[in-house]
Amino acid sequence: MKSAIVMTLCAVVLGAPGAGHTTPTANAFCAGLKRAVAPRASAADAVFIRSYDPGTDEAALPAGLATTAFVYDNALVAIALIACGNVSDARPIGNALSRAVGKDRSFDDGRVRNAYRAGAVNKVAPDLPGWWDGHANIWAEDAAQDGTSTGNVAWAALALLTLHQATGDPQYLADARRLIDWVIDTTASQDGFYGGFHGYDPKQVKLTWMSTEHNADVHAAARWLFRLTGDPKYDGAAGQAKRLLDRAFRGDHFLLGTKPDGSLADEGLLALDAQLWPWMAIPESLPAWKSTLGFAKAHLGVDGGFDFNGDRDGLWVEGTAQAALAYRIVGDTRESDRLLGNLKADQTSSGLLNAARPARLTTGLSIDPTGGVPDFFYYRRPHLGATAWAALAETGWNPFTGKRIR
């Protein structure tokens, strides 16, 4: 869900397996992901999976989430299923993403929305989430879910590239190209890529902040496309995204990105994924970038794992799984295993992990890009994205490169 959120200041693929990794070892998180996703993925040849299930203290999800399949979560799940050796359940999700690229209800430029309606995709243009508001007597939608985050577009491309590598299907590659072409054509700035678009059809608001996280995603997808196609525009896009990352790096940590006016984000705003994703996405980056892992432990660490931000009000399950993969990438398998072992306490009977360990976890971010108090929270309810990251960490799979860690 993280990349699906638009913020006030800034936002907010199957590689050649290493020797001995052609058949991933069965593990708790892969098994749990399959248990939760397989019955839903088998419903049709193109399916979006709902991002959240109700928590143990909830009779049902809030209306704004009840039909919502976030693109970020679905992209992650498709990648994680392939990392777990389960291509068959990943394909329906990839097919749904392809249909979303091919046809939108309002736009004809190759974008995907931040979320779609969960379930089988039986229409040419996938439906968007929504609910009937009986009080207002209207069909309601969410402005952020209807929008398009640059990071989500890149994650959809990474999922399609992973599927292309796993299956050889050229349609997945073609759709990944169209997505990154949209990013290049629509969100480019001089030294990075803007946040995307927010709001309802047909007139949406352009988000002029730039996100460290989003630009790491774009770099990874663009470099992958350049490796496959040799098209210099993708090499140029990767370099353009890296310029924002270079600007956001402060010696031992990354800022969130920029404000809407182009100035750098405030020093006091921290996010865990901004510390980890740049060097996970760019393996050849400066060794100093990896120092952000130590910075994250010092400034965002909590008992058993990591918080989303620096207020340390609880354990963020998804981010702790990201950190477990980061430790595996730098060779600290002992710490990676420790974090993953701790996360088994967050796995529910469905197989999914809760999004947060406390009942509510703050992020310090706002969903509405026009301003307002921070209102983006994670809750203790089963979450696709958290489970996918745990499976990626346990299998040692880098989703930005499509390769297993040797």
Describe the structure.
This protein has 13 helices and 18 strands. With 406 residues, it is an alpha+beta fold. It has one domain: Glycosyltransferase. The strands form 8 sheets. Strands 7, 8, 9 and 10 form a 4-stranded antiparallel sheet that branches. A two-stranded antiparallel ribbon has the order 1-4. A two-stranded antiparallel sheet has the order 2-3. A hairpin with a 6-residue loop joins strand 9 and strand 10. Helix 7 runs antiparallel to helix 8 and helix 9 runs parallel beside helix 11.
Q: From the alpha-carbon coordinates, what is the Rg to the nearest angstrom?
A: 19 Å
Number of helical stretches of at least 4 residues: 13
Q: Using the 3D structure, state the CATH architecture.
A: Alpha/alpha barrel
Strand count, sense and barrel status of the largest sheet are: 4 strands, antiparallel
3D shape = globular
Number of separate structural domains:
1
Q: Give the C-level CATH assignment.
A: Mainly Alpha
Mean pLDDT: 92
Which parts are unreliable, with pLDDT below 50 for 5 consecutive residues or more?
Answer: 1-26
User: By helix and strand content, what is the structural category?
Assistant: alpha+beta
